[in-house]
Design brief:
Subcellular location: Cell membrane
Number of helices: 14
Helix content: over 70%
Number of strands: 0
Mean pLDDT: 89
Membrane topology: Multi-pass membrane protein
Structural class: mainly alpha
GO biological process, one term: copper ion transport
InterPro entries: CopC/D (IPR032694), Cu-R_CopD_dom (IPR008457)
GO cellular component, one term: plasma membrane
Shape: flat
Distance between the termini: 29 Å
């Protein structure tokens, strides 16, 4: 359970530090007036190697069961030396420590070192991608994972900083003038890299819904729908509505957007700890607890569409809730929007799982 939390915090650390570094390149007049504690940025830099080290510890404890007489530090060294993600962690440690040292030594003149920080941060993301699931199956998987993490981090990092650390004027028009194209480009990269990794990892998208990894992937895609709608409304509808003129209300919507995005990060962290259904690994699948609860004892996961009344009703309710999000946004109903988004995701998720068997 704790490993999922640490993985989520790792992605959040990438986002926070990436967003902070990106904002160093933006002129003061083109971004909101923010008070971001510099110490928090430094903690984020240190958090990258710290939280990523939890996977090293987890693997070492697993190996302990097969080598009870071997000292723990030797097992730890084996993981760091012989395992791909152990090698990657060493580079992440070097990158995180280097960025922290730069931030600590040149704090008053940090803008002068923005290119160096950006370069080291990108190398740290590449190290993380090198040790990922997709990289283990394909050399292109390394590229897709790195692009995916970088795009999410830059888009979400800026969003988090603006939503939670704005203390003065939002400077909305000059801000969205550059942030909207950047966010759209990031979304396109996220979708492209995400589907590319799914093609590498998942042999049969629908068939994977019977196991933990596939269900998490489906849930992630469904949570992405209200996030995409809210991002569109915050980025484009505010230009033609009163929402863009009321900065306090707009910040609340931006915060809701960050909460939904954090839910996706948590799901992604969970997926990273599950075995993807690829090739031989999917020949003898084990149904998940949720799938067994919905369909009873199932020995084979030869998925086919089997439409039934409960699944159709749930999907229709989910679709209706999704369509009502625009109305909630226009009426500035934050709680209604959140409840409808949750209802839409849950109903669509359960409806689709009930529709396959």
């Amino acid at each position: 359970m704790y490993i999922y939390l640490f993985e989520t915090l790792l992605y959040l650390s990438f986002a926070f530090t990436g967003g902070f570094i990106l904002l160093l390149f933006v002129p003061e007049g083109s971004k909101p007036q923010m008070k971001i504690p510099f110490d928090l940025f430094q903690y984020g830099l240190l958090a990258i190697p710290v939280f990523s080290f939890m996977s090293i510890l987890r693997t070492s404890f697993i190996l302990r069961a097969f080598a009870e007489n071997m000292p723990y530090y030797e097992l730890l060294l084996i993981v760091l030396k012989d395992y791909k993600f152990g090698n990657a962690w060493i580079w992440m440690l070097i990158g995180g420590a280097a960025m922290y040292a730069i931030a600590q030594l040149f704090r008053p003149k940090i803008h002068r070192f923005k290119w160096l920080l950006a370069g080291i941060w990108c190398l740290t993301v590449l190290a993380h991608g090198w040790a990922s699931h997709p990289a283990g199956f394909s050399s292109l998987g390394f590229v897709y994972q790195s692009v995916h993490v970088a795009a999410v981090s830059l888009w979400l990092g800026v969003l988090i900083l603006v939503a939670w650390f704005t203390s003065g004027s939002l400077n909305w028009k000059p801000f969205v003038r550059w942030y909207t194209p950047m966010a759209v480009s990031s979304m396109l990269l996220i979708v492209f890299a995400g589907f590319a990794m799914m093609y590498i990892l998942v042999d049969g998208y629908f068939r994977s819904w019977g196991i933990n990894y596939g269900e998490a992937l489906l849930l992630k895609h469904l949570v992405f729908l209200p996030l995409l709608l809210l991002a569109f409304m915050n980025g484009f509808l505010t230009k033609i509505s009163k929402q863009g003129k009321d900065e306090r209300k707009l910040i609340r919507w931006l915060r809701i957007e960050t909460v939904i995005a954090l839910a996706i990060l948590a799901i992604t962290a969970y997926m990273g700890m599950q075995e993807p259904p690829h090739e031989g690994e999917f020949e003898d699948p084990v149904p998940s607890g949720l799938f067994t609860l919905l369909h009873g004892d199932v020995s084979l996961l030869n998925m086919r569409w089997h439409w039934n009344l409960p699944s159709v009703v749930l999907i229709l309710v989910g679709g209706a809730a999704l369509s009502m999000l625009f109305s909630s946004y226009k009426r500035n109903k934050h709680s209604h929007f959140s409840l409808l988004a949750a209802l839409a995701v849950i109903c669509l998720f359960l409806g689709l799982l009930l529709a396959v068997h």
